[in-house]
Amino acid sequence: MIDFIILEQMTAFAVIMQKHPGWVGLLQSTIMESVGCIWFNRTESRDREIVARKIREHIQGADNNPLLIFPEGTCVNNQYSVMFKKGAFELGCTVCPIAIKYNKIFVDAFWNSRKQSFTMHLLQLMTSWAVVCDVWYLEPQNLKPGETPIEFAERVRDIISVRAGLKRVPWDGYLKYSRPSPKHREQKQQSFAESMLRQLEEK
Over 70: is that where the pLDDT of 114 sits? Predict the structure, then answer.
């Protein structure tokens, strides 16, 4: 959410975001609703289909605000770039990568939701001297002929990681919430290795 607040200083973005309860939810349903944001609830199984439809409708509207998507799907600790979800890369539209790198000189902007509520995290940021970060708006990218959405996502992740100095890791950001089975880990590693081999062959 802090990324969204920072990027909103440049232009009015719509954003895809988890629906929150409490005062954050009130902001979502009032102020943020006015810029065309799209909400989802991870506990609702049908939300994936509904959100996919809303995204396609949004990008087809010429007068809609640019849609801001965080393809990791979760908060990351400013050191690594985890695997991107492919949903944002199979829409058939231009993707404009944005890299953000926070400087911890005054405060760590990473929100660890398992250890701290968002209210306390926001209070910590607001009582620090400043939140310092670099933002890079990178060259727009499109799906190349013969490229799969997963390969497109990995290529964009490479661009962002190099620019922000992040270490690419072959795991899903949701691993901080649950441990996958050994069979699932093996399948993911094999899929990642095959994708990297294809990219090397193309180069």
Answer: yes
